[in-house]
Amino acid sequence: MSNSPKASKNHVLIIDEINRGNISRIFGELITLLEPDKRKGGTDAREVILPYSKLPFSVPSNLYILGTMNTADKSLAQLDLALRRRFDFVELLPQPKLLDGIKVHGIAVSKILTVMNQRIEVLLDREHVIGHSYFWSLKDLDSDDEREIELGNIFKRRIIPLLQEYFFSDWERIGWVLNDPSKHTSEQFVQTREITPTVSELFHSSITGLNDRRYHINKTAFNNPESYKKILIQTESKILDSEA
């Protein structure tokens, strides 16, 4: 077997969302065998007896294991001690440039993603920036109408719910990410003005100092070109300069 062409080839095992699994159940005793020197042919080669077949087993040197995880998921902290010695950690940040050439409502989607992520990094951290894969479905569409409908769906079903989770439904900060304060009310994704009945109508005049926390999603914004164009206001020139 060791001299066969199959044995000499590299093999890759990918474990998606590895941080959501129970590592002890995924690897069991095999986790020790993942270390380079513990593998077959290593300086401290080890093998274990498999619990069901009772056969000896070792990990070959040509097996590469890739585990993916989202660093914004707090369960990552549970993995550090168990996996740090056995895995190299490579940070994969969003790559807006992979969306170059995709325009919706005349706006480069890569710029929309870039500026939203810049704001998220200021308000939260870099571990919560939005991946380019959220917009990947736009690459498969040919007509402007299809892309406009799909962009609306992406914001309605993916971006807004994600921001709700990130900011614990703090609608004011969600609006900041989308640059809503600079927009006309009809263009805002998150509307905070012109909500009726007013606070004074809801409460007795003796109750003062209330902060109106009411917000709602403006469904018409998902089909409004200005709602997307004005995400870039105030920062678009800086983005263009950085890409020059």
Task: Give me some keywords for this one.
244 residues; two-stranded parallel sheet; two-stranded antiparallel sheet
SSE blueprint:
Elements: H1 5-8, E1 11-15, H2 23-27, H3 30-33, E2 48-49, E3 56-57, E4 63-67, H4 80-83, E5 103-104, E6 107-108, H5 109-123, H6 144-166, H7 171-177, E7 190-191, H8 199-202, E8 216-217, H9 225-229, H10 236-243
Parallel strand pairs: 1-4
Antiparallel strand pairs: 2-3, 5-6, 7-8
Description:
The longest helix has 23 residues, at 144-166. The radius of gyration is 25 Å and the shape is elongated. Strand 2 (48-49) and strand 3 (56-57) form a beta hairpin. With 244 residues, the chain is an alpha+beta fold. The model has no long low-confidence stretch (mean pLDDT 87). The termini are far apart. It has helices spanning 5-8, 23-27, 30-33, 80-83, 109-123, 144-166, 171-177, 199-202, 225-229, 236-243, and strands at 11-15, 48-49, 56-57, 63-67, 103-104, 107-108, 190-191, 216-217. It has 10 helices and 8 strands. The strands form 4 sheets. Strands 1-4 form a two-stranded parallel sheet. It has a two-stranded antiparallel ribbon with strand order 2-3.
How much is the radius of gyration in Å? 25 Å
Q: Give the CA-CA distance, first to last residue.
A: 55 Å
What structural class results from the helix and strand content? alpha+beta
Tertiary shape? elongated
> Count of DSSP E strands?
8
Low-confidence stretches: none
Strand content: 5-15%
Looking across the biggest beta sheet, what order are the strands in? 1-4
Total of DSSP H or I helical runs spanning 4+ residues: 10
The helicity comes to 25-40%
SSE string, helices as H and strands as E: HEHHEEEHEEHHHEHEHH
Major β-sheet profile: 2 strands, parallel
User: Roughly what is the average pLDDT, rounded to an integer?
Assistant: 87
